Amino acid sequence: MKTLIIALALTATAAFAQEDIKVSADRGKAVYMQTCMACHQLTGMGVPGAFPPLAKTDYVTGDTRRLVAIVLKGITGPMTVDGKIYATGMPQPELTFPILKEDKNVADVLNYVRTSFGNEAKEPITPEFVAEVRKEFAARTTQWTEAELKAFPAKGTAPAK
Ligand code: HEC
What residue's CA is closest to ligand 1, atom 10? Predict the structure, then answer.
């Protein structure tokens, strides 16, 4: 009996520690509608020449730390996505949408993006992870450039500009 109770307690702890990506993604859909949809569109396919797609791009399916950093700081200047150049720029999202100041909303919206539009991520981005990345780049006030994102800084070497 004692073992059973311990086993149940452990299972419950594990469930709290990491919730299923789908549960977070379901909440994230509403965040997406408010904070990304106007540019990246309902389909996640963007608008040719203006807004890049979020479907299976390297930035979406690649390094999650870089992806979080993109949503926290935005992007400036031209960037190539799937062989096409975009130069509209992505203003720092949380300046336009204060709900993105909450780590949970950033995690939810990215889990939605990473499981939609043909993307098939299995591991959720957690609010704790968003908080870590936010802290790491707290001193930075400017948007990323493509060159910086391509050579995304190794952990602990964040440029504070
Ligand atoms: C005001 C329009 C706008 C909004 C709102 C916006 N983006 Fe973007 N986003 C862009 C543009 C434009 C680029 C291309 C960067 C450039 O032109 O320098 C981009 C690039 C990106 C990229 C990297 C390239 C790619 O397509 O993979 C990601 C990832 C991304 N956005 C995610 C998001 C997410 C997630 C949200 C919502 C939280 C969001 N964006 C909100 C305009 C926007």
Answer: 90
- The reported pLDDT for the residue numbered 18 is 74
Q: Is 147 exposed, middle or buried (0-12, 13-18, 19+ CB in 10 A)?
A: exposed
Query: How far apart are alpha carbons 60 and 6 in whole angstroms?
Result: 39
Condensed to tens digits (0 to 9), the pLDDT of residues 56-85 reads 999 999 999 999 999 999 999 999 999 999
CA atoms within 13 A on the CB side of 131: 6
Q: Is 40 a pocket residue for ligand 1 (Cβ < 6 Å)?
A: yes
- Which residue has a Cα nearest atom 36 of ligand 1? 36
pLDDT tens-digit map of 120-139: 999 999 999 999 999 999 99
Residue 49 buriedness (CB in 10 A; 0-12 / 13-18 / 19+): exposed
Ligand 1 geometric centre to CA of 159 (Å): 21
Quote the ligand 1 centre to 52 CA distance (angstroms): 7
Q: Is 87 in the pocket of ligand 1 (CB under 6 A)?
A: yes
Of the pLDDT bands very low, low, confident and very high (cuts 50, 70, 90), residue 102 is: very high
